[in-house]
Structure formats: C-alpha cells, structure tokens
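Weekly structure sync, notes
Attendees: PL, DS, HV (note-taker this week)

Item 1: Prepilin-type cleavage/methylation domain-containing protein
DS walked through the input record. Source organism listed as Paenibacillus donghaensis. Sequence as pasted into the shared doc:
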Amino acid sequence: MEKGRVVQKIQGEVALQAEEEDIRMKLGLKQERGFTLIEVLAAIVILSIVSLVLTSYFTNAMSYSKANQNKTIMVNLARNALFYVEKEDFGKLQTYFVVNNHSSIAASDCQPPKPSETDSCSGYSGVVSNNNVLAHVLNPVVNGISYQINIEYQRSLHQEMVTSKDTIEKETSKYLIPVRIRIRDAGRVTANVNETVVEGYITDEKIR
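Item 1 (cont.): predicted structure, written out as tokens:
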C-alpha cells in the first residue's frame, strides 16, 4: 500500500510538471507571435517614403555640385579671355571697338579651323596677332563640353566715362575699354540658359 501511494504521488508530480510545461509553452508562443500583415505593410510604406526623400536629397545635391563646378569653369574661361585681349595691342582693339564702332568679337564669327582650312577667323585679322589662338580662346572645350565666348564692348559705360565731369575719370577713359565677357554652353540654344558674364577693362600698355 505504501509503495502504491508513492507511485501515485510520483505520477501526480510528473503530470503536474507536464501541465506546467504545457502552460509555459503556450504562453511563450503567445509572446513570440509574428508581425501582422498591416504592420509589415506600414513598415514598407515608411521605408519607401524615407528612401524617396533620401534619393531626392542626394540627386539635388549632385545636381547642385555639378552646376557649381560648371559655373566655376565658365568664370575661369571668361577671365582667361579677358586676360588674352588685355595682352593684345590696345591701339588695334581701340580702333576696332571705339573708332570703327564694332559691338563685339563673337565666337560664331571665329571658329577653330577645320583640317582643310588654314584660317576661319580672317574677320579679326587686323585686331589680334593670331587668329587661330583667338578662335580657340573664344571656343574652348573643357571636359567634353564646348563653350562659346563673346567679348562685348560696353559703349554706354565708356561714353559715360568720356563725358564725365570728373577729370581723372575722363582722362582715364582714353586708356580703358570697358568690356563684358559673355560665356555660355554651346550645346544650349536658349540665350540665358547656363550663361555667365564677367565684366572688366582692356587696359592700355601705357598704364599697366
């Protein structure tokens, strides 16, 4: 009898332990349940929105950086053109702009010569020392992009200097030619698209 009670007690304890283990497993399954479909979809939507915002940000940043780089190149090319004409004969340039009443030296009228040509810029023969050099200055190519540069005479500004009541400014006007260097991407047809302007003076050698 005593042995039977012991066996029953052990069996009861085992059954109790099994029941407790079963309860723990059920509770564990409830705590470890997965995400619902709505939660997954919400997460995907949020990630998509964040990705779109980041993509847009980086795209705009790259475009801005490229535009700034292009702007810097154009400013440097314009300054190079101004530096070039400053080294040319002032008397010839003064005759061309002031005396003969020309408004500009245009890139479209002075293209680099083709292999079959010797001079495609003869219209400026009496203005600069080397037409071919002028053609390349007015039509530079940087990083595969072609640019066109026009050197424009600022007649109204010069006239103001000539007729100025300030004696020094009036006297100085004899030795200065105010110009505007206008440069644009040759691939863009619209006049004001991707255009940069640099202003300066062609100075007579006597006061340099």
